[in-house]
TrEMBL record:
<feature type="domain" description="Signal transduction histidine kinase internal region">
    <location>
        <begin position="159"/>
        <end position="237"/>
    </location>
</feature>
<protein>
    <submittedName>
        <fullName>GHKL domain-containing protein</fullName>
    </submittedName>
</protein>
<dbReference type="Pfam" id="PF06580">
    <property type="entry name" value="His_kinase"/>
</dbReference>
<keyword id="KW-0472">Membrane</keyword>
<keyword id="KW-1133">Transmembrane helix</keyword>
<keyword id="KW-0812">Transmembrane</keyword>
<dbReference type="InterPro" id="IPR010559">
    <property type="entry name" value="Sig_transdc_His_kin_internal"/>
</dbReference>
<dbReference type="GO" id="GO:0016020">
    <property type="term" value="C:membrane"/>
</dbReference>
<dbReference type="InterPro" id="IPR050640">
    <property type="entry name" value="Bact_2-comp_sensor_kinase"/>
</dbReference>
<feature type="transmembrane region" description="Helical">
    <location>
        <begin position="114"/>
        <end position="139"/>
    </location>
</feature>
<feature type="transmembrane region" description="Helical">
    <location>
        <begin position="70"/>
        <end position="90"/>
    </location>
</feature>
<dbReference type="InterPro" id="IPR036890">
    <property type="entry name" value="HATPase_C_sf"/>
</dbReference>
<feature type="transmembrane region" description="Helical">
    <location>
        <begin position="40"/>
        <end position="61"/>
    </location>
</feature>
<dbReference type="GO" id="GO:0000155">
    <property type="term" value="F:phosphorelay sensor kinase activity"/>
</dbReference>
<feature type="transmembrane region" description="Helical">
    <location>
        <begin position="9"/>
        <end position="28"/>
    </location>
</feature>
Amino acid sequence: MITERLRHFNALFCLLWLIITTVIWTVSDYQQHDLFSKTISVMVPLGALILSTYILCNLLLPQAVGKNRGYWTVLVLVSVALVQGVLLYLCEELLFFLGQRGFIVLDSEPRDTFWLSIINATPIALLLNLGFGGLRFFYEHAKLSEKHHVLQKNLLESQVAALQAQINPHFMFNVLNHIHILMQSNVAKSSTLLLKYADMLRYQLYEGNKDSTYLKTEIAFIDNFIEIERVRWDDRLVIDTFWDIEDVQVRTSPLLFFTLLENAFKYVSRPEDSKGFVKAEMEQKENRVVFVVENSVSKSHLVEKNEGNSGLGLSNLRKRLDLLYTDRYKLDIVHSAESYRARLLIYV
C-alpha cells in the first residue's frame, strides 16, 4: 500500500521531470519543422532517464538506505549513472536506426562512440541521481524519523504502564491490610473504610491507567485515602490538608502525588511526648502544580530512610517523572531529626 508520504514524493518527482522536459523541449532546436521527429528524439532518451531514476528512487535507494551503510548508497548511485550512460547510448543508436529507416529525420551531427557517449552522459546522469536521490533520501529519513518517534512513544507508554502496574498492587495491599486490622476492633469504621476503598478502586479502574486525569479527580482520590488514614489512626495522629487550586480542570498524570502521600503515612511516627503529624498541601497556578507533604519521624525511621529503604514507591515515582515530565518537574526531599518533607513541582 502506497503511503501518503510516498504519494507526495512521486507527485513531486513527476512535477520536477515535467519541468525538466519542458525546459529541454523549449531550448532544443532539433528538427524545429518536424514535430514528430523532435518529439521522438527528445522523449526517447528522457523516457529512459525518467524510468531509471524512478527505479532508483523507489526501489534501489530505499533498500540501500535501509542497510544503513553510506558506501552502499554511493555504489548504487554511481552504478545507476553508468547504466543510464549505456541506456542513453542505446537510445542514440535507436534514433539512428529509426532515421535510417525513414521513420524520423536524422540529425546531421556525427554520432559519439560508445565510450565517448558513456563519458559524456554519466556525469549528467550522476547529477540527476544525486538531486532526485537526495530528495528521496529526505523523504526516507523523514519516514525513519517518524517510525523512530512511534517506537519511542510505544516504549514510553510500555514503561509507564509497567511502573503504573507496580503502584496498584502495592497500594491495594496496604489498604486491605488496614481494613483487616480495623475489622477486628471496629466493624462500623471498617465499613466506612470499605466504602472509601470502593471509591478508590473505582478511580484505579477508570482513571489510574489513563495518560492523564483531571486534578479535581486526583484530589478526590487523595481525600479518600486521607479519610481512610484518619479512621485508621483515630486521634493518635494530627492530619492537616490544604488545597489552593486555581483550575480544577488542569490535567496531570494519575497517582503522582499519591505516592508521596502514601510514603508519608507509611513512615510517620509519634514522638514520645506528642502526637505525630502528616501535613499535605497542594497549590495550582496556571500551568504550575506544587504538592508538599511532611510527616513526623523518629530517629529510627530517619536512619531507615537515609539508608534508602523507603520501598519501591519513591524510586518508582522518580522513574515515572523522568518519563512523563522529563525537564518539567522538580522533586526535593528534605529530612531532619523531627520531620521528613517532600516537595514535588510539575509543569503541566
